[in-house]
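Revision sheet: structure tokens.
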Amino acid sequence: MKKQVPSIETLLKAIPALPKQQRKVMASLMKGKPLSVAEMAATLWLCDPRAVIRELRAKGYPILDQWRRTETARYKVYFIDANLLATI
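Predicted:
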């Protein structure tokens, strides 16, 4: 049985009721800039941003990710699709 995904309107209305850490992550991601775990930890003062993202995804928030590479590192950035943000 497929899990029913809430509409984006429902999810947006629910943001003010989210726990503080989840609100902080959503507010940052909704600005449209992809963020790494290190950036979120430093700017939002979160110990484990991945856990917060996991919880938000479980609630139905459409948080995407993408691997990035530099010469010395490989890391993931998290974001909300720009097309979805344009409809808000």
